């Protein structure tokens, strides 16, 4: 088994003889032997180390639409993995068995960045996704994988909550080809009470990625009944996106299922997803999707100019494809924002586990 602890760069010593981690806005102040809230970054020998380098809770091939990314090589397979831990404490976490894990033994799989890049190439994956838990906390491993992958023309995809400080954020997204950022709600109260974080820091990351990088950006909001699904909040969220990011950043409204510490909540209704999508479209956004439900209308892509159906989707299955070889609408020649091959991928909804030798 390869070594799993590596030194990190984003930290400093405080006046009270503790070591502060400067990776994310949580700014954990630690003494030797202590771990940050994320669990995988720890203080050893008066410096912050990453304890999960090269280790994962598992590897598999997913459809890119599962990240979700609908405008980044649709239909293509993506090699996906996560580690353990998270730097937010969302009570509604849908992957809590991974993100809230406090057992390093759960990281049963191991792969070096070079092994991952080679595996993606051998398995005909167009990209590698850092997902299941937030790649921000395994910053060094994610960047090394991205750099090894670039040598083989494999794209890097980050699925993240965007809770990261400006300096490490710059390095992180410089190595990412695409990102889906969770905009979990549009109120500081929600972030404080249900996530243990701050909305302002997430909005700052979203603005940075859109305005200062070449990383393809899509956003996701998990709609939780009675918490962040009011018409007023969806109005505010979609208006902010329109005013600050423009109309072409895809937005995904996805369905919540009761889990972790919010098992008393009901499932998100399809009607709530549809209503939220309608509000965002009314506010000027061009590409708004529903997710975690079977909804061919809400899951499909339409031309922002002539409203022609461009890509038909039902969950992760692609159907009708009406883009030319330049990614333009065949009806009116309006270019669809994003990255598209000349032909759609055909991976479909399947999920394939991948094993690496220890």
Given the structure, what is the number of helices? 9
| CA(first)-CA(last) distance | 5 Å
Compute the number of structural domains.
2
Global mean pLDDT: 93
CATH superfamily of the largest domain: Aldolase class I
Strand order of the largest sheet: 16-15-14-13-12-11-9-8-20
Poorly predicted regions are 99-106
What would you report as the Rg, rounded to the nearest angstrom?
20 Å
Number of strand elements:
20
Query: What is the CATH topology classification name of the largest domain?
Result: TIM Barrel
Structural class: alpha/beta
The top-level CATH class of the largest domain is Alpha Beta
**What CATH architecture label of the largest domain applies?**
Alpha-Beta Barrel
Q: Strand content of the residues, in percent?
A: 15-25%
Estimated helix fraction: 10-25%
Which H/E pattern describes the elements? Answer: EEEEEEEEEHEHEHEHEHHEHEHEHEEEE
Q: Tell me the major beta sheet.
A: 9 strands, mixed
Describe the structure concisely for a colleague.
With 358 residues, the chain is α/β, with parallel strands linked by helices. The chain has helices at 96-99, 113-122, 139-150, 166-174, 188-195, 199-212, 231-245, 270-282, 296-299, and strands spanning 6-7, 11-13, 19-21, 29-30, 41-44, 47-50, 55-56, 58-63, 77-82, 109-110, 127-130, 155-160, 178-182, 216-223, 251-255, 288-291, 301-302, 309-314, 317-321, 352-354.
């Amino acid at each position: 088994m390869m070594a799993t602890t590596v030194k990190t760069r984003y930290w400093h010593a405080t006046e009270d003889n503790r070591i502060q981690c400067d990776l994310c806005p949580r700014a954990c102040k630690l003494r030797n032997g202590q771990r940050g809230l994320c669990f995988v970054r720890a203080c050893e020998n008066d410096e912050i180390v990453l304890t999960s380098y090269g280790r994962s809770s598992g590897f598999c091939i997913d459809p890119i639409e599962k990240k979700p990314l609908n405008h980044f090589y649709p239909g293509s397979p993506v090699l996906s993995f996560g580690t353990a831990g998270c730097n937010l404490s969302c009570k509604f976490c849908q992957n809590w068995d991974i993100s809230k894990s406090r057992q390093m033994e759960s990281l049963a799989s191991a792969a070096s960045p070079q092994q991952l890049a080679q595996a993606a190439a051998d398995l005909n994956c167009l990209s590698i996704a850092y997902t299941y838990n937030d790649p921000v906390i395994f910053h060094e491993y994610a960047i090394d994988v991205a750099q090894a992958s670039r040598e083989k023309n494999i794209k890097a995809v980050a699925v993240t909550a965007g809770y990261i400080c400006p300096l490490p954020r710059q390095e992180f997204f410089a190595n990412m080809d695409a990102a889906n950022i969770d905009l979990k709600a549009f109120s500081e109260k929600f972030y404080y009470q249900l996530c243990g974080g701050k909305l302002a820091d997430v909005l700052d990351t979203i603005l940075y990625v859109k305005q200062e990088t070449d990383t393809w950006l899509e956003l996701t909001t998990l709609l939780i009944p009675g918490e962040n699904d009011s018409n007023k909040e969806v109005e505010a969220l979609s208006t902010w996106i329109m005013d600050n990011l423009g109309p072409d950043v895809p937005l995904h409204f996805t369905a919540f299922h009761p889990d972790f510490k919010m098992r008393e909540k009901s499932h998100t209704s399809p009607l709530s997803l549809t209503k939220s999508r309608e509000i965002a479209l009314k506010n000027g956004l061009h590409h708004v999707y529903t997710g975690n439900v079977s909804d061919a209308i809400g899951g499909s892509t339409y031309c922002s100019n002539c409203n022609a159906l461009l890509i038909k989707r039902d969950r992760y299955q692609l159907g009708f494809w009406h883009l030319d070889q330049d990614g333009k609408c065949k009806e009116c020649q309006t270019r669809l924002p994003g990255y598209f091959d000349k032909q759609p991928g055909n991976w479909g909804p399947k999920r394939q586990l991948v094993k690496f030798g220890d």
